[in-house]
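BUG: 3D viewer hangs when loading the predicted structure for this chain

Environment: internal workstation, default settings.
Expected: structure renders.
Actual: progress bar stalls at 90%.

Input used:
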Amino acid sequence: MAWTPFPYADEAYVHTAASLKKAWARLHLGDAEPFPKKAALVDAWIAFHAGDFEQAVSLGLAAGIDGYAVAHKASCIYATYLEKSEKKKIAAFECVAERCERHQDEQPANAAAWYWHAYALGRYAQGISIVKALAQGIAPKVRASLDKTIKLAPAHADAHIALGTFHAEIIGSVGAMIGGLTYGVKKEEAYKAFRKALELNPDSAIGRIEYANALVTLEGKKKMDEAVGLYRQAAAVDVKDATERLDVEAAKQELEDE
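Structure tokens produced before the viewer hung:
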């Protein structure tokens, strides 16, 4: 397939192996990913952070199971933000979810195998509609993979964001009572998860965006001012790589749409 190029190419996002290692802790506060031991994977992550998602996927898959984490992430970020075709986007998330299941079998202690499984299934659900996804039995799989991620990597801020979104979107789709009884979701747990995520990763633009989306979903107009404040904070984040730039541009778009 033809990949849509990252539209905000910037030298500031391009690393050497040495500069990537130095910046790694800040760049990976969200996913708690360890610095790679193999040079080929360092190259894959350099491509990822620069916004060359096609190259990141290619190099990651070429490295075998140890490269799955960067391949999962690059595939998911690309599909979320840059893929124009809804059909291709949904197919990409299905592909990542299937690959994650193989990853879980081979590296059950790798948090990335579980987190990207939950992420891919969650985005797939958004693509086909949450109600349809609930009917397909996807919710328990997402929840199980998020719980496993957090058990393996308690500081995985992005998993806490996803957990908050999980609670909010199910309540938004089926209501608080059915959501609570059937899926164990609660409004308070959504907010608690977002607060935890921002405590772990204070510079997270996507954490603020998803928190704002959840406020609108769960509270409607009465929380709109708070949501707009979160979008503004997200739009002002000091961007360090291509993914963060895409998050910030998404926040700016939300503000324009208000």
